[in-house]
Predict the 3D structure of the following.
Amino acid sequence: MARRRFSDPAGLTALSMVRGLPVPFYLLCGSLGAGKTTLLMRLLEHWRHQGRRVGVLMNEAGAVSIDGPRAGTLAQQVLNLAGGCVCCDTREDLAWGVGQLVTDYRSDLIVLECSGMADPAEVVDAVTDVYLSRLIWLERAIALLHPAAMADGAMSDVAIRHAVRYADDVILNKRDLYVPGLWEQFKAAAIEENPHARIWETTLARVDPHALLQADPPARPAATVNVAFGHTRSPSTAPVSRARHHPMVVTIQLPDPLNRPRFLRWVGALPDGIERAKGFFRFAGEPELQEFQFFPPRVHTVSPVTLLDEPDHVVVLIGRDYDQERCRNDLLACVER
């Protein structure tokens, strides 16, 4: 799978000096026709009442945006990423769009509605780019699905499976259209794919935005909230925290160059929960800037790179259910002080 990186598009390094950065970024993904735009409108209404300056990125596979004008009635600004999936065809437009919303329109919150065909894993990879992370931080991923995404009792499409796996909240919508047996099968498949997410069951995307967006969901939601958690966790995994099971990003700042042999041993010992890793840094005694990439199936590259702008020396880890502090401490032990 080819992977592209940004080389400071739109001068994001200079833009990162704007006060109030980075701003929270919300990812709304899921199956085609599941009701993502309906949910987006509910969220925009909620944020408008809070006085937030919300910038919206609308990704549609067609050449013309159909849903963008609807969102424009509530959002502070809407930018359309039409003509392909944001995970591949319009991926570089994502960086430009974020830069515009943050600087030209002073958005203090950004939400991206992905095309139903977009692969959320690739979108997460894009928004955690070392340059974009200076402008935005991935606050929450929300997946909206309906049972049409099911086939033979399993999540049938890679993009759908990734939407569920990467989500903090999985919203199963259009419950009124399906018989109970199929619905329970659908719910069980979602929980099996991601036992750590909150599972919401609803119709017409009727989810309480306040409950959905709260930073630290309660261990036992109120009976009036249409949400259930996945599998019960054993005491060995307690305390359960969003930070431990959140599948997105841990950014590790590197204060000095790394010891090459120690770093390579660290890479070889990365836990199975790490799905993606990347970064820029230097090795002690070597002048070249290095680019690090790690991706399934446990393949990694470290190679010299020349960029127009010197990026932060960091390593970004993307994964789920692994010991984040141990990975951080073990990497920092590779620093050659």
User: Anything to note?
Assistant: Confidence is low (pLDDT under 50) at residues 1-7, 61-68, 151-156, 218-246.
